[in-house]
């Protein structure tokens, strides 16, 4: 199963890991295929540069060793696939849709209630419960 994670989950997994996040990343990278979009990786690095500058080398190292499929998010995603409150969230989910990801994991409540057929949108804890 192909699983994409949102920037907020990736930041939590890389910088604030605990038993639940470690289990989540283990399940995704060992039992499934992790997919990261260029948009999420760029957003991650921007947040790290802005808020956690001292962790930049650690995140860079982790990304270089983490097994994942890297997919490109177009600079101008095609509009109209779905409606979402925060326009910055559109490219993230757009990437998951066009890359035919099975599950999208996020902690962002703006993704709730979109009723997409695919990908299935789950919080980290719901993903762990289900898979």
In a few lines, what is going on in this structure?
This protein has 131 residues and is an alpha/beta fold. The protein is 47% helix and 14% strand.
Protein described:
The protein is α/β, with parallel strands linked by helices. It has a single domain, classed as Rossmann fold (3-Layer(aba) Sandwich). Helices cover 47% and strands 14% of the residues. It contains six helices and five strands; from the N terminus they run βααβααβαββα. The longest helix has 14 residues.
Residues in β-strands, percent = 5-15%
Number of helices: 6
Spatial order of the strands forming the largest sheet: 3-2-1-4-5
- Biggest sheet overview: 5 strands, parallel
The number of distinct structural domains comes to 1
Structural class: alpha/beta
β-strand number: 5
Order of helices and strands: EHHEHHEHEEH
Quickly name the level 1 CATH class.
Alpha Beta
Low-confidence stretches: none
Q: What name is given to the CATH topology?
A: Rossmann fold
Relative helix content: 40-55%
Q: Averaged pLDDT, please?
A: 94
State the shape: globular
Task: Find the CATH superfamily.
Answer: 5'-nuclease
Q: Distance N terminus to C terminus?
A: 10 Å
Proper CATH architecture = 3-Layer(aba) Sandwich
C-alpha-based Rg, rounded: 14 Å
């Amino acid at each position: 199963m192909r699983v994409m994670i949102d920037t907020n989950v990736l930041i939590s997994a890389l910088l604030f890991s605990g038993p639940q996040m470690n289990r989540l990343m283990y399940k995704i990278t060992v039992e499934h295929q992790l997919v990261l979009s260029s948009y999420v990786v760029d957003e991650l690095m921007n947040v790290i540069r802005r808020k956690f500058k001292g962790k930049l080398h650690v995140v860079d190292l982790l990304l270089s060793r983490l097994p994942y499929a890297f997919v490109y998010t177009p600079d101008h995603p095609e509009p109209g696939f779905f409606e979402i409150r925060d326009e910055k969230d559109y490219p993230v989910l757009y990437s998951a849709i066009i890359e035919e990801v099975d599950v999208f994991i996020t902690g962002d409540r703006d993704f709730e209630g979109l009723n997409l057929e695919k990908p299935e949108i789950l919080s980290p804890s719901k993903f762990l419960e289900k898979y």
